[in-house]
Amino acid sequence: MRPSTIPIIFLSGGDPVERGLVASLARPGGNLTGISILVGELMPKRLELLSELVPHAGVIALLVNPNNPNTEQYIKDMQEAARAKGVRLHILKAGTESDFEPAFVSLLQQHGAALVVAADPFCNNRREQLVALAARDAVPAIYEWGEAVVAGGLVSYGPSITAAFRQLGIYVEKILNGAKPADLPVQQPTTFELIINLKAANTLGLTVPQSILARADEVIE
């Protein structure tokens, strides 16, 4: 079978080189290029931010989708980050919507004081359900995308999905004008958004440190 020559532009949450999508970020070398949004690499930073928001947290839970191929690496990275912060990490797994309720029951049983929601399309697509459960159980949680904070969540930290889609549009235009994917480097975000919901913080009885407010790109009141 001859390899496809149809140009393909992707938005990847993992390492496109490791996945075999491209030969390298600088020189994709085939008919694919796109955006690598570094979602997993930012998860230790999310734990660090959550520790600043909830300094008394001795146990922080990590909610992962066991069906995500990156989950094992997420857990390893977060365990290292938790050890560095001197907190215990409790792993929660949810691969279906029906898994969320028992996951939050386990979180409370383990005296989890805060929650990091893993970078995962399944969790993101059900952000409103997760935000509602976290609010019900008064659990401070940090998410990947700002949409969860707009929906009532406490805090998010990650790349701008709007900026990522804008870059994809730029690449589509370039390819339509004759550029080849092999000549278009895989882009990675250079700026990240920290979004805080002060209303959610007040409901949880949290005082957001000025150090975090000063870094926030958006504050929802």
Structure, described:
The chain is α/β, with parallel strands linked by helices. It contains nine helices and nine strands. Helix 2 links the parallel strand 3 (59-64) and strand 4. The radius of gyration is 19 Å and the shape is globular. The N and C termini lie far apart (57 Å).
Terminal Cα span: 57 Å
Order of helices and strands: EEHEHEHEHHEHEHEHHE
What top-tier CATH class of the largest domain fits best? Alpha Beta
| Total domain units | 2
**Unreliable residue stretches:** none
**Strand percent estimate:** 15-25%
Q: What's the CATH architecture name of the largest domain?
A: 3-Layer(aba) Sandwich
Largest sheet: 7 strands, mixed
Q: What would the principal axes of the Cα set say about the shape?
A: globular
Strand order of the largest sheet: 4-3-5-6-7-8-9
Give a short synopsis of this structure.
The protein has about 220 residues and is α/β, with parallel strands linked by helices. It contains 9 helices and 9 strands. Helix 1 packs parallel to helix 2 (about 70-85).
Q: Could you list some keywords that capture this structure?
A:
two-stranded parallel ribbon, 19% strand, 221 residues, alpha/beta, 2 domains, Rossmann fold, 9 strands, 7-stranded mixed β-sheet
